[in-house]
Amino acid sequence: AREALPSLSHIAAWMAERAIVQHEETGELALDVDPGLVDLKVLEALAGFWAPWAYDDDPTTPGPTLHELRLALDDACGDAAEAALSVAGSQARRNEVARVRRMLRDQGERLTAKYHLVDAALDAADGDAKQAAEALLSNPEIAKQLEKLKVREELFKTIPMAHPTSREVERVLAAADGDVEEAAKMLAEDPVVQEKAEEVYATWSETLQAVAAGEENTFSFEILDTGWTNLDAPAEVKVPEAPDVPEVNPQIREFFPPAPKPLCPA
């Protein structure tokens, strides 16, 4: 893919040079637009063509988000072609992970694996999805996750609002020697699990009354990233004052001491 970078750079430059921004209703040119927006739209077009997220025989996976495109463009210092290669690589890996997960589901409807496990298995298999799926099927951690899922499903039959922690599920599985039904029964009889299930269960009217009272469910937010800023946006930048640099004797700066002057014979 990197061999196509010169051609991709030429295409990106051609698109950016001929790009114009117009008002949707009036058709007039919009001149108060951040130039980075043009690079972002170029990257979006390139990613839509070079980083497809739908295949005929594979499941559809989520495509690159706007936040991901912005991060890729920032990492590439505004180079849309370089950013497109990065986005295409990430999207290709997501497609491979989805393909491996589909192979796992073919072996069991509820069988799945976390992203980082599938990613590591693909690296170990040099991108071979079938080999990675076979390695994951023999991974004891995958089997443990499936057993914990079965325990939760069995527990939900008796206590629908129960949400035990992963450690609690592992503890009862070990105590029940891997018996799913017995482990679910032990969790259902656990007072801690019962208490947590009762805390979660609340009607909408009770929740709305608590919000109206202002005693709980008080939310706050903070804007960490405002996104792209316009060039004409007012900004006040305080220039720091330069510190006073003390004068240093030139002789002190010398790394080697000066050679002594030769003495002339009398």
What structural keywords apply?
single chain, mainly alpha, 12 helices, extended
Number of beta-strand segments = 0
Q: Determine the strand fraction and express it as a percent band.
A: under 5%
Give the overall pLDDT as a whole number: 79
From the alpha-carbon coordinates, what is the Rg to the nearest angstrom?
Answer: 31 Å
Q: Please trace the helix and strand order, writing H or E for each element.
A: HHHHHHHHHHHH
Which stretches are poorly predicted, pLDDT < 50 over at least 5 residues? none
User: SS-based structural class?
Assistant: mainly alpha
Sketch the major β-sheet: none
Individual helix count: 12
- How does the overall form come out from the CA principal axes? extended
Helix share, percent: 40-55%
* End-to-end C-alpha gap: 80 Å
Written overview of the protein:
The chain has helices at 5-17, 35-50, 66-75, 80-107, 115-124, 129-137, 140-156, 166-175, 180-188, 191-200, 204-213, 250-253. The protein has 266 residues and is mostly helical. It is extended, with a radius of gyration of 31 Å.
Please write out the topology:
Layout: H1 5-17, H2 35-50, H3 66-75, H4 80-107, H5 115-124, H6 129-137, H7 140-156, H8 166-175, H9 180-188, H10 191-200, H11 204-213, H12 250-253
Helix pairs in contact: 1-4, 2-3, 2-4, 3-4, 4-5, 4-6, 5-6, 7-8, 7-9, 8-9
Short description:
The chain is mainly α and 266 residues long. 55% of the residues lie in helices and 0% in strands.
